[in-house]
Amino acid sequence: MEEKKQKNKVQELKYCSIMQKEIFEEPSVVKNLLDTYTTSKDEITLNLPNKIDNIVIVASGSSYNCAAIAAPLFIEYAEIPCEFEYSSEFVLQKKHFITPDSLYIFVSQSGETSDTLNALKIIKEKNVKTMCITNAKNSTMWNLCDYKILSDAGEEKSIASTKALTAQILCSILVLLKIKSQKGEDISGFLNTMRRLPAYLERIKNDLPKIKSAAKEISNFNNISVLGNKNYYPVAKEGALKIKETCYLNVMAYPFGEFMHGHVAVLNQKSLVIAIIDEENSEFAVNNLKKIRQDYNPKIICITSVQDVQAGDFNIYIKTKRKLKAIFGSLLTLQLIACELAALLDKNPDNPKGLKKVVKY
Ligand code: AGP
Asked: What digits encode the pLDDT tens for the residues 202-217?
């Protein structure tokens, strides 16, 4: 009954699911966060410790994928050591690496996930500076952490997290930019890129007919591998997670290079590869795809931000030269693919079987 009511409400609003509605909100979520946390003088109004010499990010599920996307960005752009760990593994570790100015960041949409909360409690006992990035003000994590960032995506009802993850990634980027500015570095170029993000995401959203056609292709396959390098590997993992949660297909994600070390053997003519390609990895990716095609001839779908690189049987072009935009663009594309695929496979993405919004023990 409740599910039927929910479905009617969503149909009234002209979305095919709550998940789709929440994905469509992403450009405005991003704009709102930039308006809240940045000023016209290119300042970032987040409260951070003055000294940070090492960062560890701990999280689960999609929030873990945020950690995995953000950590290499902290290293590359803020030049600060940064590690990341699954909350459930972190709590099992016998020792935790702590420096005099370590900052432990806990990322959680709900602020209540047991694994992440337990990890936070372990670190609290060690007298280390803690920060949370959460969508839930006054959640347990919010109240326990020394530094708090509200990811402010608005209530996320869909069990498959979408807009909350996009908001978490943007907040992480703002933290790294704040660290950069605390070191006296100019961040205006980065902020300009981020300010163009809402319009960029809007354009990708408007490419829905293309994404629907991609989903139609994908719906013929149940052996699916998603490939991406560096920051795009966790994006690929998130895409796989979204398809698992909404379509119950066992989709696997791999880094391009690592895929060639044996995993590639799962491919054949009846399998499908989704490849994420950007400026930095295009040559490497295209060479690997050639080899894959030669040896196994799977169907290949490319999500590419580089116009000349249309290496798939089907290509979704998410034009940009900026990695910080392409990360969000490829993520949004994969989220929409999962949502469309669920509809095609007659699954209700708003009610995935056996899953709960907050994983608590
Ligand atoms: C994502 O789509 C999931 N439903 C799930 O992996 C979720 O991200 C995870 O349980 C962590 O939740 P949190 O962000 O509320 O801590």
From this structure: 999 999 999 999 999 9
Among the atoms of ligand 1, which is closest to the Cα of residue 116? 16
Residue owning tokens 């300009």: 192
Residue 92 is predicted with a pLDDT of: 97
- Pocket of ligand 1, candidates 63, 69, 107: which has the most ligand atoms within 8 Å of its Cβ, to mutate? 63
Expressed in angstroms and rounded, the spacing between residue 246 Cα and the centre of ligand 1 is 14
Residue type, 152: D
Torsions phi, psi of 273, nearest 5? -115, 130
Cα–Cα distance between 5 and 257 in angstroms, integer?
47
Beta-carbon neighbour count of residue 350 at 10 Å? 23
Backbone angles phi, psi at 340, to 5 degrees: -70, -40
List C-alpha distances in Å: 317 to 59, 277, 330. Answer: 31, 10, 10
Does the beta carbon of 87 lie inside 6 Å of ligand 1? no
Q: Tell which CATH architecture fits domain 202-344.
A: 3-Layer(aba) Sandwich (3.40)
What stretch of H or E contains 166? helix 163-182
Contacts of 7 (CB under 8 A, 6+ apart): 348, 350
Residue pair 304/333 in contact by the 8 Å Cβ criterion: no
- Residue 236 Cα to chain centre, angstroms: 9
Q: Where in the chain is the domain with CATH 3.40.50.10490?
A: 12-195, 202-344
Mean pLDDT for the stretch of residues 143-159: 97
Q: Is the CB of 60 under 6 A from ligand 1?
A: yes
The one-letter code for the residue type at 347 is K
Q: How many H-runs (helices) and E-runs (strands) does the chain carry?
A: 15, 10
CATH topology of domain 12-195: Rossmann fold (3.40.50)
